[in-house]
Amino acid sequence: MTGVLGRLHGELPRTDDLEHPARFLLHRLRPAAAALVRSRWRLEVRGAERVPATGPVVLIGNHMGWLDGPLMAIASPRPVHALTKTEMFTGPLGPLLTAAGQIPVHRCEVDPRAVRTGILVLREGGVVGMFPEGTRGDGGVRSVRCGSAYLALVTGATVVPLVFLGTREYGGANSSLPRAGSRMVLTYGRPQVFPATGWPRRATHVRAVAEEHRRMLLETLREAREATGLELPGPIPDKKDDRD
Fold first, then answer.
1. How far is residue 84's CA from residue 103's CA, in Å, rounded to a whole number?
2. What is this structure's pTM?
3. In this predicted model, which residue has the larger pLDDT, 240 or 38?
């Protein structure tokens, strides 16, 4: 690599030894996948104009249903490379996720390769999707992890909050789907840029930015609930069978 892009990939953490995730299916299949979703549910997308048309974006979402991840990739105004738990890449779904450019991540430990792959996508002007809560819950963003903050501080990417409502039935199980014909709403919140910060990035600074991401999600959640009349689905009844 040469020029500005080569210089960026050579900065710490280095990304010049990685390949960009696959893009073909991510770009080509999104319209058909969105049409399939709309054939079963009443899907609404609000505030999509808040996603910058160009440049690096970290898309952060609340997380309460199985559909959140696919909808983040399908309904976004731009293709999204979402960090997806490694367990989803086993079995027949694995090759599809890989071909669709999704990024496998080990959730229970720091995953340097997943982090660097996300940075690679952002350095090349793409969109990375994350669920800062780290797991499915009631969607109320009770706490957040620091991954999205770290990516934003390394790259200076614009951060856009995304709130899901209606993607799980009230009181429904972890992997349950909403009833056919029900309403699902995706609401994009106000974007914010966090200036890139060189090494060393202090843990206290990264945590403070992560809490700002949580505040952005909560503000977007308040806006979405007031605008749509939809509510959160409540706690997952039994977290023992944790397939999120």
1. 6
2. 0.93
3. 38
Q: Which residue has the tokens 């991401």?
A: 213
- 154 and 118 in contact (C-beta within 8 Å)? no
In b/e form, how buried is each residue of 68-100, taking b as 16+ CB within 10 angstroms? bbbbbbbbbeebbbbbbbeebbeeeeeeebbeb
% of the chain beyond a pLDDT of 90 = 71
Torsion of CA 166, 171, 172, 177, to 10 degrees: -10
Tokens of 126: 């793409």
Helical ranges in 49-136 per DSSP H:
68-75, 93-99, 112-123
Closest CA to 43 of 147, 167, 148, 130: 167
pLDDT tens digits, 168-199: 999 998 888 999 999 999 999 999 999 999 88
* Residue 138: both structure tokens together: 């009631």
Among the listed residues 132, 199, 196, the one whose alpha carbon sits nearest the alpha carbon of residue 160: 132
What pLDDT sits at residue 2? 58
Distance CA 120, CA 168 (A): 32
